[in-house]
Amino acid sequence: MFLDLSSIPVTVTLCKRFIIAKIRGEHYRDYGVNKYDDIGTGFGHFGVAVEDVMKTVDLIKAKGGKVTREPGPVKGGSTIIAFVEDPDGYKFELLERGPTPEPLCQVMLRVGDLDRSINFYKKAYGMELLRKRDDPEYKYTIAMMGYGPEGKNAVLELTYNYGVKEYDKGNGYAQIVIRPDDVYKTAEAIKVCGGKITLEPGPLPGIDTKITVCVDPDGWKSAFVDNVDFLKELE
Ligand SMILES: C[C@@H](O)C(=O)SC[C@H](NC(=O)CC[C@H](N)C(=O)O)C(=O)NCC(=O)O
Fold it and tell me: Would you tell me how many other CB atoms lie within 10 Å of the CB of residue 47?
């Protein structure tokens, strides 16, 4: 699969419940703003699964794309990865995997307290802790959170760097969009678990799609769109 970074849609349905973060740039723009020059230090990358990282990197180079980490085993592991950047400077990690229904497979966010985040995403968002890996050599721990097994579902890769409690969110990251069955219950769970509701649950004016919006304990924003309403919008 050739990865044409300029064609990555702003919001991509990754699996039944998890629509990847909206990123501000060429496709998703606030009127009058044509440059998001501060991606911040908290946003990590989008992970894209490809069957041949080396071939994909060669194609990206041939198209003038920017490769920031050449193909090779991930430090401390065996998965072949590479890092590339899109024209707005957003990072994409290419991960060598077999065929998958969800090539856009990760969104990585850095957090200041991993256990707090795991607990929050479990209890407020109904996610599972799919995998946790500590890497003392490189002083970080990651937790993969999601609604189904990696390799078939998009996952949220929460990264804790030893001793780093806060990150700059910049102005480019917008949100992760998740599709629950009941945004009212979701909002209640978020409030109970220490999240902050920034848009109370209810129908959007004019289109009746029920949504709610919140920020997690680190300030990462998530929007929740009623699953049935969302599917109706696609009809
Ligand atoms: C799928 C998952 O296991 C990985 O790919 S981990 C990749 C690894 N992550 C980190 O190093 C996170 C900590 C880092 N300080 C950060 O905040 O991004 C990574 O990026 N490795 C780079 C490499 O060259 O292997």
Answer: 23
Which residue is listed with tokens 């300030």? 219
As a whole number of angstroms, the distance between CA 194 and CA 120 comes to 8
Q: Do domains 10-176 and 179-235 have the same CATH topology?
A: yes
Distance from the alpha carbon of residue 64 to the mean position of ligand 1, in angstroms: 24
Q: What is the 48 CA–ligand 1 centroid distance (Å)? A: 14
| Interface predicted TM-score of the whole assembly (ipTM), two decimals | 0.97
150 carries an active-site annotation: no
H helices present in 130-182, as ranges: none
Q: Tell me which of 26, 51, 85, 93 is the catalytic residue.
A: 93
What's the rounded Cα separation, in Å, for the pair 40 and 135? 23
Classify domain 179-235 by CATH architecture.
Answer: Roll (3.10)
Residue of the nearest CA to atom 20 in ligand 1?
A: 74
User: Whole-prediction pTM value?
Assistant: 0.87
